[in-house]
Every structure is written in structure tokens, then in C-alpha cells.
Design a protein that fits this description.
328 residues, alpha/beta, 2 domains, two-stranded parallel sheet, 11 helices
């Protein structure tokens, strides 16, 4: 097994997203992962199908999606509740090398100096605090300029060690993602009271939504939003739901505008594919997605991810690409 691959461009950063999908499927790290975890010759045949573009992209993505079922240690739970796979040293080495090449461990650069909208995506509490701080850092240090900032979270109750992490952050009163995003955004951008608050409470799992609007001392608009789910009776809002809510309810997107999504490196490929599908394609905007740089935010512990966690997010990327390919 090799331990180093050439970088694979993010899908959708070039002119032809369909060609990007083909290149991603045929890339060496994706093929190497299949080869390393295939259980028999029939499963190993997927490697050749991916490399030689046998069948449509939709067909290959469907097969690859089914293949990644073996990496799903979440089983519907939150990411911090996922179990670990039993991997040998060679497999772990390969997974880390593939994650490097696929842009899941940093190295995705900014294309522009100025962005019309900066979006920070929510997640577990560590993400709510670090991503907001990193977005503010990019602006405060002059790396980028921004016309507006939006934090996209959800009404997800804390689980596991999130309560402990909230207490360590000095906010033991936090108990859900939306409030954590609001707290992190207020701290990062030095915000005071919101200029307006709107929303709706619902007994449905994904029916509750809310928006809190602020302005920085310099007058830049900042908003913290929790989107409703597109399937409110079944689940809470996911990343595509949040993007759709932002595009339709929070921003009057215009063709040619530039958006920067700020997340954690491990989630960049999957969340970028969703942003291309939900924002770039229908609205004609330019989208960049970057992960926070470890060690940049003072006091923030550098988060280490296991090989299992990277395999989970390769699976998430495959599923995001399936939805993107269906649109293309």
C-alpha cells in the first residue's frame, strides 16, 4: 500500500463539476481505499470500474456508496458517539494518506481576497467555537474581506462530552448546537445584543427554526441561523437544508457573488459538494470551502481524528457526490 498520493481537486472548484466527479472517482486514493477494504474479488472489481469509468457516474457512485456501508460506525448516532473500526497499521497509514490527498486534513487554499458572504457551519460544540473563531481570525488579520457573515447551526441537543466541553469553554449553560453557535459567534466577533430575533418553535423533530441578527462595531451584518428541516416530521435540518434556508431566506444571492464556507478540514469535501449542489449550481455563485488551521486559535486544542473518522467522512463525501451527480 502506498503512503502518499497526489492531491485530488475539490469537486466543483473548476468549470465542469461533472468532470470533477469523474476525476474524483478515478483518483488513486479512492481506488486504494477500495482495494484495501475489499473482501473479495467481486468487490475488488470496483477499483477497475472506477479507474476506467465503466458505467455511468451515478452507477459507480451507487456501488461505492454501498461499499462504504462497512465504514458506518455511527449507525444514526452523533459523530462523537461513533465506535471505532479494528484496523491494521497499513490500513491506518493508507487512510491518513488518502485523507491528505482528498483535502480532508487541510491544504485547501482561498481563491479570493474578498467574499460577499462568509458561512460557518455548525456541528458538535468544539466546531461551533473553533469555526466561528477562525472565520473572525481570517477577517481580523486581513486575510480576507467580507460583506456579511452567517453562522448556520441547528436545534440539536448536546450529547456525550459536549456538556463537559461547554463548561471548559466557560459556558456551562449551553445545551444545544444553535445556542453554541450563537455563543461562539458573539465571542468571536465581539457582538452585543441582537438587533432582531425571529423564529418559530415546533414540536416536530425538524420544525423549529430561528435567526438572530447582529452588527459588528464596524457595521458588518452578522446572523446566526437555525434552519428548519425539509422533512420536519422525520429529522432535524441537515447541511443541504441549511444551505437552502440561507439562499432563500437569509441572502438574496446574485450570480457571480463569492461565498466562503468555513468548517473543519475533515468535512471540507462533503460540505463543499453540498454547497456546489445547493448554492453554486442554482444561483450561479462562486463557492470556496476551507477548514480551520490547527493551532491558529489561541486556547483551542488541536483536534485529532482517527482513521475511522476519516473513513466515515469519505462515506459522507460519496453520498454528497451522489446527490450532486443527480443534479448534474
Amino acid at each position: 500500500m502506498g503512503s502518499k498520493f497526489e492531491p485530488v481537486p475539490l469537486v466543483g472548484r473548476k468549470v465542469d463539476p461533472a468532470a470533477d466527479v469523474e476525476a474524483w472517482l478515478a483518483s488513486s486514493p479512492v481506488g486504494a481505499l477500495v482495494e484495501a477494504f475489499a473482501a473479495n474479488d467481486q468487490e475488488r472489481s470496483l477499483v477497475a470500474d472506477l479507474a476506467d469509468a465503466r458505467g455511468t457516474a451515478a452507477e459507480r457512485l451507487a456501488r461505492l456508496d454501498a461499499f462504504t456501508d462497512r465504514w458506518d460506525t455511527r449507525q444514526g448516532r452523533e459523530r462523537n458517539q461513533a465506535t471505532e473500526l479494528s484496523l491494521v497499521g497499513e490500513q491506518e497509514e493508507l487512510v491518513f494518506a488518502a485523507a491528505d490527498a482528498l483535502g480532508m486534513r487541510g491544504g485547501i487554499g482561498l481563491r479570493f481576497k474578498r467574499y460577499d458572504h462568509i458561512l460557518m457551519l455548525g456541528g458538535l460544540i468544539r466546531a461551533c467555537l473553533v469555526r466561528t473563531a477562525y472565520a473572525a481570525h481570517l477577517i481580523d488579520t486581513g486575510v480576507i474581506e467580507a460583506a456579511s457573515v452567517t453562522a448556520l447551526g441547528g436545534h440539536r441537543p448536546f450529547v456525550g462530552n459536549e456538556f463537559e466541553l461547554a463548561a471548559q469553554a466557560g459556558a456551562p449553560e449551553l445545551a444545544e448546537e444553535y445556542d453554541a453557535m450563537d455563543y461562539g459567534t458573539r465571542v468571536a466577533f465581539g457582538l452585543k445584543e441582537p438587533t432582531s430575533v425571529e423564529g418559530e418553535d415546533s414540536p416536530l423533530p425538524g420544525g423549529t427554526w430561528g435567526v438572530r441578527r447582529y452588527r459588528t462595531e464596524a457595521g458588518m451584518p452578522v446572523q446566526v441561523a437555525a434552519a428548519p428541516s425539509s422533512e420536519p416530521t422525520k429529522r432535524r435540518a441537515d447541511t443541504p437544508d441549511s444551505y437552502a434556508f440561507f439562499a432563500k431566506q437569509l441572502a438574496a444571492l446574485q450570480p457571480g457573488e463569492r461565498l466562503l464556507m468555513v468548517t473543519t478540514p475533515i468535512y471540507v469535501p462533503a460540505q463543499h459538494a453540498a454547497a456546489v449542489r445547493m448554492l453554486a449550481l442554482p444561483y450561479g455563485v462562486e463557492v470556496d470551502t476551507v477548514g480551520n488551521e490547527p493551532g491558529v486559535i489561541p486556547g483551542a486544542a488541536v483536534q485529532q481524528f482517527s482513521a475511522t473518522k476519516y473513513l466515515l467522512e469519505v462515506r459522507s463525501t460519496v453520498r454528497a457526490l451522489r446527490r450532486l451527480a443527480a443534479e448534474l
